[in-house]
């Protein structure tokens, strides 16, 4: 059974860097032809795809976040990570990691982690 679990700080101050990790169990993140995605949902808004790292290590980013985002992976820990720089209160959201066949479809989700940006 494939499971994803997000972890990271619940509170980040403005202008700081948000760092999140997604621990994957049940499958290696280099196995298959999957894309490992980050998606967020701000309060009262719809979900926003942020970016992904593919099975071969290629990364993809939402153009609106590309300048502030970095996605990487640690195969020894079977996890992938998200860094978002220079956060503002508008980055407050529930952050999800998800596995999909592409950057457009997501079949397995983590439970999500709330991140609040506030001083």
Strand tally: 11
User: What is the global morphology?
Assistant: globular
Evaluate the radius of gyration.
Answer: 13 Å
- Regarding quaternary structure, what we see is single chain
Distance N to C terminus: 39 Å
Secondary-structure content class: mainly beta
Mean pLDDT: 96
The profile of the biggest β sheet is: 7 strands, mixed
SS summary, helix count: 0
User: Low-confidence parts lasting 5 or more residues at pLDDT below 50?
Assistant: none
> What portion of residues is helical?
under 10%
- SSE pattern: EEEEEEEEEEE
User: Hey, roughly how much beta strand do the residues contain?
Assistant: over 45%
SSE diagram, text form:
Layout: E1 3-7, E2 11-12, E3 18-25, E4 35-41, E5 48-54, E6 59-61, E7 69-74, E8 79-84, E9 93-100, E10 108-109, E11 113-117
Parallel strand pairs: 2-11
Antiparallel strand pairs: 1-3, 3-8, 4-5, 4-9, 5-6, 7-8, 9-10, 9-11
């Amino acid at each position: 059974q494939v499971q994803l679990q997000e972890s990271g700080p619940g509170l980040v101050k403005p202008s700081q860097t948000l760092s999140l990790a997604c621990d994957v169990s049940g499958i290696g993140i280099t196995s298959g032809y999957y894309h490992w995605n980050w998606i967020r949902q701000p309060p009262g808004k719809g979900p926003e795809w942020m970016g992904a790292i593919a099975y071969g290590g290629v990364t993809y980013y939402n153009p609106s976040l590309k300048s502030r985002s970095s996605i990487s992976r640690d195969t020894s820990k079977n996890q992938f990570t998200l860094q978002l720089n220079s956060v503002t209160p508008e980055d407050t959201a529930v952050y999800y990691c998800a596995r999909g066949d592409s950057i457009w479809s997501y079949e397995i989700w983590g439970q999500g982690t709330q991140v609040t940006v506030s001083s």
